[in-house]
Inverse folding.
């Protein structure tokens, strides 16, 4: 993608300008970001997905005149478990629809001017008149694309982040909207993290949300330390604490300072290996979503040849990224350099590689591709 090129999706500004002026800073409303946009799944298809074990679905029902006024349930939901369509004020939200539908995945890919390491998923919500999840804020950035019907968004910077007590959802206690927009199909609203918003369906409505991953320090540190520890063990074997000069103690409960030093050194050594840290990060970021299972397929010996003839495309659920020294795919890392690295990076960026380019790979790299094909991570282009 040429990030300096103006995009209708961003209201005629370039991704470069968007990232500089709006990303994580302020909202952007784009009327007709996707002109003539029609839902990529109809209501029945969305309800089918809501019944699927592999999709994460939530339902929020407003109960007028009752306390706490909101009911919240986790799916899956069979069609008969959904309230009637003529009942106002309910919504279902289906997470990760990009993992299930190619066209939804393609739509999400239009937002790949943001690194894949940040892109999370595309959620689709369906609501009957008046439905919504209440005024709230999210900890991540979001693009809200109106897909069907209208939704009235009220948004605000909101200083007071107190939540309503005793409700099963995070709902702001004192929402103070500063702006209001009614979105029509094809309109897009970008909101930075912690920007308060409340979207209320005007008639039956479907909204697509492209959401982002925000790694959290504690979680990242835990993941990386665990991976570093595993790698350190693999590489140097288990090295054991030794204390031949430990004197006899009269305070046996005291931890020997030397033990702390040993622990500190172990951590420092692990952290000093910057390649191992980079590997851990790439493996973590490309780990498939918990509900993703790839079906392995048997690949005939000639498959390398097929891949060279047809070219390849990544499965929509495959996560592939790279850094200076490695290529990462679905939680695994590979060292790459030279022409192989250039071609593998092109595959990660474009998610396809032509047969001509596949033919330029080394035998080893082609063998890797064949094994990824056998694992169901990619396939020969149709
Ligand atoms: C929606 O109801 O589609 C959007 C939920 C949200 O505001 O995050
Ligand atoms: Co939200």
């Amino acid at each position: 993608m040429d990030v300096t090129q103006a995009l209708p999706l961003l209201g005629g500004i370039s991704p470069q300008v968007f990232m500089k002026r709006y990303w994580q800073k302020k909202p952007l409303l784009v009327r007709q970001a996707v002109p003539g946009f029609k839902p990529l799944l109809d209501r029945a298809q969305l309800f089918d997905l809501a019944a699927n074990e592999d999709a994460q679905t939530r339902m929020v029902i407003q109960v007028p005149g009752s306390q706490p006024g909101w009911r919240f349930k986790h799916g899956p939901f069979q069609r008969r478990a959904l309230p009637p369509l003529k009942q106002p004020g309910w919504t279902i939200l289906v997470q990760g629809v990009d993992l299930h539908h190619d066209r939804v995945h393609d739509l999400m890919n239009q937002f790949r001017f943001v690194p894949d390491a940040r892109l999370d998923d595309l959620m689709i919500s369906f609501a009957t008149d008046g439905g919504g999840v209440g005024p709230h804020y999210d900890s991540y950035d979001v693009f809200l694309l109106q897909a069907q019907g209208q939704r009235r968004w009220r948004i605000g910077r909101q200083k007071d982040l107190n939540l309503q007590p005793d409700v099963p959802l995070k709902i702001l206690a004192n929402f103070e909207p500063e702006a209001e927009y009614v979105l029509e199909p094809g309109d897009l609203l970008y909101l930075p993290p912690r920007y308060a918003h409340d979207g209320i369906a005007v008639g039956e409505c479907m909204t697509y949300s492209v959401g982002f991953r925000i790694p959290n320090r504690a979680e990242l540190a835990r993941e990386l330390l665990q991976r570093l520890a595993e790698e350190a063990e693999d590489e140097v074997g288990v090295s054991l604490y030794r204390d031949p000069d430990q004197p006899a103690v009269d305070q046996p409960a005291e931890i020997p300072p030397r033990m702390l030093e040993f622990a500190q050194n172990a951590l420092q050594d692990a952290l000093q290996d910057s390649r191992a840290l980079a590997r851990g990060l790439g493996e973590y970021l490309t780990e498939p979503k918990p509900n993703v299972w790839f079906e392995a397929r048997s690949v005939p010996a000639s498959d390398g040849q097929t891949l060279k003839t047809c070219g390849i495309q990544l499965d929509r659920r495959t996560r592939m990224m790279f850094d200076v020294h490695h290529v990462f795919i679905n939680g695994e890392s590979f060292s790459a350099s030279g022409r192989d690295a250039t071609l593998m990076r092109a595959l990660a960026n474009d998610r396809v590689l032509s047969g001509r380019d596949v033919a330029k790979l080394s035998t080893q790299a082609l063998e890797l591709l064949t094994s990824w094909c056998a694992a169901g991570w990619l396939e020969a282009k149709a």
User: Anything to note?
Assistant: The first strand starts at residue 28 and ends at 30.
